[in-house]
Amino acid sequence: PPAPGGGGGWRLFRHWLMARALPPEALHEATQLIGAHFGGVSLALRALGAKVGRRVYWPGSGFQGLVEYDLFEVGDDVVFGSRSVVMCCDAEEALPVRVLDGANVADRCVLLPGCTVGRNALLGSGGLAARGQTLEGGSKSVGSRHGRAVLLEPGSLAAEAAPTERPFGRAFYGREAPYRVIPAWAHALAASCSKAFAVSYRALTLSLALLLARLALAAAGRDPDGGAQLSFWGVAGPLVPIYVASQGAATLLALLLAVGCKWAVLGRREPGDYDWDRSSYCQRWNLYLSLTVLIRSAYFGRGLLEYIQGSAYLVWYFRALGARIGRDVCLYPTGGDPMMTEPELVEIGDGAAVDKASLVAHINSLGRFSLNRVAVGARCTLRSDSRLLSGATMLPDSALLEHTLIMGGDVVDQGSTWQGWPGQIVAVQQCALREDEGREEGYVEVS
């Protein structure tokens, strides 16, 4: 990596070469075949030079921005959320990033060069660990304001000295669970077989279309094996519509398989605690993700749901998974990262619009996994990169602007507009009803 105090052409070239030869996306694709959360990821990162402890729960999405693996240090019993960024190098120098024993780095966090997440510290959703910053052991922080994470609870000696072993470590590595824990090799086998099935399934569509087109030509007396001479259009005439129909049928079947797999493997979710050492839910959830790769990786690296985003078909799909969605709802017109992961715990009222926002009903805080309901009222708006944490509620006619976080258990007041991470009220909508003109809307800015 570039040396502190500046780099030089050779060091910069090595950084560029490593970023191109093994980008984080490529490593993420590889870990999907060996279990994205388990010990195989630890082995891969150690081989690349990282210092990794035991019983680490890795993010399912990998890390963005990580190039200098040998400057990345992770202690024992660390829990990572998804879609986080780890940067060990900036334009000036390279510095180690340390995540100490028992720490929890939640989803969408950013770890900048030289930062340290202390023992048993929690960096909550969207947290920013600034360059050279040390988060105290046992402290709890979230989001960012003025270039630093917002401190919710200061650390203490008792919290820092508390045992670091988490429910995941006790269940998966210690086998201390009331159910049969599936070993890592079995998760890897399920993921690899599911990936192979998905690839074969996509290839089967074209093979089936060619076979059916040949049968159609034979039925019409134009079998090429019988000596019939066929032009390009003579073959394309039956092949194209048959291929389109086969592709549509295969897509519909894939979605039906995903729905059936969800109900067979997970059943109907209910609010509650689902720690690894108390419930088999987390294990079944990982198996479900492996088995449904068929719809998440379809064409040109895009999932099937991305081709129906913003349409009524997507609403129907989530209703089939158990979501309670009202009329005239627009879901993810510009995509979702991710789309709702626990649909039966999400309720969306009539006329709501959800852009590239996050409606996730689970929370994994210091290894404690729980599910809570998420409610979006009628005519609510969630703009791009906004997020409702597990247990949050939006009352009717409220709105979240871009890059806004609503904490778990918080309620967005009716007619209010929020912005920020964590969110704050920036405007209040006032509505007056007129018989002849319908509803007239106005806004009052909140300082």
Secondary-structure map:
Layout: H1 9-21, H2 24-31, H3 39-47, E1 51-52, E2 63-64, E3 72-74, E4 79-80, E5 84-86, E6 97-99, E7 104-105, E8 110-111, E9 116-117, E10 122-123, E11 128-129, E12 134-135, E13 140-145, E14 148-153, H4 157-161, H5 167-173, H6 184-219, H7 232-265, E15 272-273, H8 281-291, H9 293-296, H10 312-320, E16 324-325, E17 330-331, E18 346-348, E19 353-354, E20 358-359, E21 362-365, E22 368-371, E23 374-376, E24 381-382, E25 387-388, E26 393-394, E27 399-406, E28 411-412, E29 416-420, E30 424-434, E31 438-445
Parallel strand pairs: 1-3, 2-5, 3-6, 4-7, 5-8, 6-9, 7-10, 8-11, 9-12, 10-13, 16-18, 17-19, 18-23, 19-24, 20-25, 23-26, 24-27, 25-27, 26-28, 27-29
Antiparallel strand pairs: 13-14, 15-22, 21-22, 29-30, 30-31
Query: What's the average pLDDT?
Result: 88
The dominant shape is globular
Number of helices: 10
Unreliable stretches (pLDDT < 50, length at least 5) are 1-5, 432-440
What structural class do the secondary elements suggest? alpha/beta
